[in-house]
Amino acid sequence: MTDPARATSPGPEAPTDTASAGYTERLARLAGASWKQRLDVQRPYRWNVRRLNLGRVLDLGCGLGRNLAHLDGNGVGIDHNPTSVATAREHGHVAFTPEEFRNSPHARPGAFDSLLMAHVVEHVPHETAVALLREHLPFVRPGGKVVLICPQERGWASDATHVRFVDFTGLAELCGEAGLPVERAYSFPFPRRAGQVFAYNEFVVVARLPDRPR
Known about the structure:
Blueprint: H1 21-31, H2 34-39, H3 43-51, E1 57-60, H4 66-70, E2 75-78, H5 82-90, E3 95-96, H6 98-102, E4 112-118, H7 126-136, E5 140-151, H8 153-156, H9 168-177, E6 182-188, E7 202-208
Parallel strand pairs: 1-2, 1-4, 2-3, 4-5
Antiparallel strand pairs: 5-7, 6-7
């Protein structure tokens, strides 16, 4: 898909590497803005992820652990940024780098009820996203859920580390290549048209792993 025109400029000093300490610092700075804390801007997103009833979650690309916090820590996070992993741990979450996770007792077949990839796919080429999904699906139980979340146009344009724009069609294609039937796709928190101007509007796709053959 052709990338939409950048709606906003991320600024000349914005980090371009999601594995850097600077990227973690940017996430922490944005999340810690005083006005966001006063208004509890995460409240609708917290409600959204909780209502999906994800059970024990494998949060792939967990960042600072925001979604783990939304889920009251009921899960394990993985992130390739060691500084972000350390920050998530400081917040009381169970989080690992990919290598650490593979060597952990959590890396067991079917150990999780669901897989969450929130704001990950837009950071990597399509082939990498497919590989990540396939690599981690065995850790989810048969019949478990897979939730993919990506920013819409305004949000995509706000981050220099975003490499491609992914909409409902792109997420459905990703699920199809991984053998995951899509159960639901919706725009959140506002209707799709809001994504052109509201940086925090998201594409949400819910798919499910097939049950074991009987």
